[in-house]
């Protein structure tokens, strides 16, 4: 009972922090820069402690990940419009590669692999949040919108909650027993149904208030085109969010840990809390940009 209370309080604070940070662009960039740093730090710590003959430079990987997130945020928001803002990040990656020549580590290839994974698996996906939040309007000016990134989080939360409820009630067929024995096909499908309902509601409200990012000829035009685009986004987030959860479970099973950390009482670590997001956000960006090109 005590654990449930702690978990619930942490969950409420977590959701409130995510929702309120999108009220201001600087708050959003600050919060997710911190989240990116904590997650990379946690990942590198897990690797250094549990993967044999592997040592990543935890501090530099964390600084690099945070810098990349802020550089992406600055670039897409127009604060730092020059692509030269990414040069320090590229130089850091080169340093992390070349430094292995001189450190005489037992397995430098493992060090390289996990170092680059910290950036590709964590820093890059989180940097897609500002890509969704900032966009150029018809007037050529860059505008900040909370709708798309917040919708992705809402769909992930609805998917997780729906899958848990349905899976607990009628789940019998295991989705991926080798990696996550608790997940079922029934739960995943149930979560997907709830996400489609949530997508329909969000799409309807966005259309009614004239703030839908899927309005216009680029996305098929008309209310029907908007509705289809929102349904598609819901499906993409649900599927890739589930895969993101499974990928993190595979990572933890491979290195032999149950939780990625203890920073979030009742919820484990940062990776445990954001695992679904790490595939869902890149997939959402690809989906939206693909739609705009069709």
What features would you highlight for this structure?
294 residues; mainly alpha; two-stranded antiparallel sheet; 12 helices
Straight-line N-to-C gap: 51 Å
Number of strands: 4
Strand order of the largest sheet: 1-2
Pick out the low-confidence regions: none
Helix percentage: over 70%
% residues in beta strands: under 5%
| Class by SSE composition | mainly alpha
How confident overall, as mean pLDDT? 91
C-alpha-based Rg, rounded: 20 Å
Q: What is the overall silhouette?
A: globular
Order of helices and strands: HHHHHHHEEHEEHHHH
Characterize the structure shown:
The strands form two sheets. This protein has a two-stranded antiparallel sheet. The chain has a two-stranded antiparallel ribbon with strand order 3-4. Helix 3 packs antiparallel against helix 4, helix 8 (147-170) crosses helix 10 (222-255) and helix 8 packs across helix 12 (277-293). The N and C termini lie far apart (51 Å). The chain has helices at residues 2-21, 25-50, 58-77, 87-98, 100-103, 108-126, 128-133, 147-170, 185-208, 222-255, 270-274, 277-293, and strands at 134-136, 142-144, 174-176, 180-184. It is mainly α and 294 residues long. It is globular, with a radius of gyration of 20 Å.
Short description:
Helices cover 72% and strands 5% of the residues. The chain contains twelve helices and four strands.
């Amino acid at each position: 009972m005590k654990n449930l209370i702690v978990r619930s309080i942490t969950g409420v604070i977590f959701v409130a922090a995510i929702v309120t940070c999108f009220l201001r662009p600087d708050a959003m960039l600050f919060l997710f820069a911190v989240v990116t740093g904590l997650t990379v730090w946690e990942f590198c710590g897990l690797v250094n402690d549990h993967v044999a003959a592997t040592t990543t430079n935890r501090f530099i990987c964390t600084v690099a990940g945070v810098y990349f997130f802020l550089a992406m945020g600055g670039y897409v928001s127009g604060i730092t419009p020059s692509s030269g803002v990414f040069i320090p990040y590229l130089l850091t990656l080169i340093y992390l590669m070349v430094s292995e020549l001189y450190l005489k580590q037992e397995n430098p290839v493992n060090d390289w692999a996990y170092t680059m994974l910290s950036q590709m698996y964590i820093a890059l996906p989180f940097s897609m949040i500002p890509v969704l939040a900032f966009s150029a309007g018809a007037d050529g000016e860059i505008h900040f919108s909370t709708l798309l990134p917040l919708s992705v989080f809402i769909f992930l939360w609805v998917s997780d909650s729906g899958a848990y409820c349905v899976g607990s009630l009628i789940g019998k067929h295991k989705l991926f027993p080798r990696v996550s024995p608790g997940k079922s096909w029934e739960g995943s499908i149930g979560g997907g149904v709830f996400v489609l309902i949530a997508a329909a509601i969000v799409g309807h409200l966005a259309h009614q208030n004239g703030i839908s990012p899927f309005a216009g000829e680029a996305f098929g035009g008309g209310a029907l085109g908007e509705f289809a685009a929102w349904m598609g986004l819901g499906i993409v987030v649900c599927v890739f969010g589930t895969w993101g959860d499974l990928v993190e479970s595979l990572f933890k099973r491979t290195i032999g840990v149950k939780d990625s950390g203890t920073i979030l009482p009742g919820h484990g670590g940062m990776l445990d809390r954001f695992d679904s997001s790490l595939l869902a956000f890149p997939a959402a960006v690809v989906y939206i940009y693909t739609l705009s090109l069709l």
